[in-house]
Amino acid sequence: MDIFFLGTGAGMPAKLRNVTSIALKLLEERGGVWLFDAGEATQHQILHTSLKPRRIEKIFITHLHGDHIYGLPGLLSSRSFQGGESEVTVYGPKGIKEYIHTSLSLSQTYLKYPLTVNEVDEGVIFEDDQFKVETLRLDHGIPSYGYRIIEKDRPGTLLAEKLKDTGVAPGPIFRKIKNGEAVILEDGRTINPTEFLGPTQKGRIVTILGDTRYCENAISLANNADFLVHEATFSANEEKLAHDYFHSTTHQAAQVAKIAGCKQLCLTHISSRYDRKDWLELVDEAKGIFPNTDIAEDFKEINIPLKH
Ligand SMILES: [Zn+2]
Ligand SMILES: [Zn+2]
Q: Residue 166 burial (CB < 10 Å; 0-12/13-18/19+)?
């Protein structure tokens, strides 16, 4: 599981930072990539990486501001030209359906793959046997959502040799024990699965938030997260400006990570008023409150390790 930043700027594209798009690479977990927002030129950014658009399985849109969605129709269209055939599901606030439908139909774009668009509200918006995704509303000028991606715990690996040593032959009994079921053998012995399974692999939690002011729902979504992506459009001393424009400062992002008990924080959506030389200062501000903080840069990749 890796987070790959395709665009990390605020509002408008800048030379050093393109507008927002974040890829959650789940290649080992499910052979796919989940994208969060698709600002203008997201597909151009992808060209500079090893990401394959046909691998994109889901696209989560945090809100409908242009710097988060102007790259979406082009990306969806190119994916079709590039041989993408598998289904894509887009999740986003009310209006995302009309936006996608209008752009594709007016430009007479026909996709060669099935596209599903789900307009979301607060709650669980996706769940399968591997992952669950929850959303809550944040505090921004228009409806903006945060996404909490919960990886489910996986049962430990089967200790096959140990099981063989007890005289059980590989087969249906192995499968039952792997699934955590107790088994009574023909000779009357009971096999307790916990003795024959390695430790449970704990699932990870990743929280990716849309643009927001400092708010309670950000803290709820980030509760105990292994990785939090929080916007920090402004430096710590611009609290008034951040409030007026419905954004957060470095300190506020760090405060959310601290109160929520996150393991790691990455700041993104950095205003173009800050030059490369300012970035270190921005991280240092946040580190004063939450030490394990990083700042996103276009094309930066961060691994989210398995828990032990
Ligand atoms: Zn934005
Ligand atoms: Zn916005």
A: exposed
pLDDT at position 122: 97
Whether residue 67 lies in the annotated active site: yes
Give 111 Cα–ligand 2 centroid separation in angstroms.
28
Beta bridge partners of 137: 145
pLDDT greater than 90 at residue 14:
yes
Cα→Cα distances 141→77, 95, 236, Å: 29, 15, 21
Q: What distance in Å separates the CA atoms of residue 92 and residue 59, rounded to the nearest whole number? A: 8
The residues, any chain, with a CB within 8 Å of residue 47's CB and separated by 6 or more, are: none
What span, in angstroms and rounded, lies between the C-alpha atoms of 209 and 229? Answer: 6
Confidence of residue 167 (pLDDT cuts 50, 70, 90): confident
Q: Which residue among 37, 67, 226, 294 is the active-site one?
A: 67
In this structure, which ligand is nearest to the CA of 39?
1
Tokens of 269: 């959506």
Task: Outline where DSSP puts E strands in the chain.
Answer: 2-7, 21-26, 32-36, 56-60, 88-92, 115-119, 123-127, 131-137, 145-151, 183-184, 190-191, 205-209, 227-231, 265-268, 293-295, 301-303
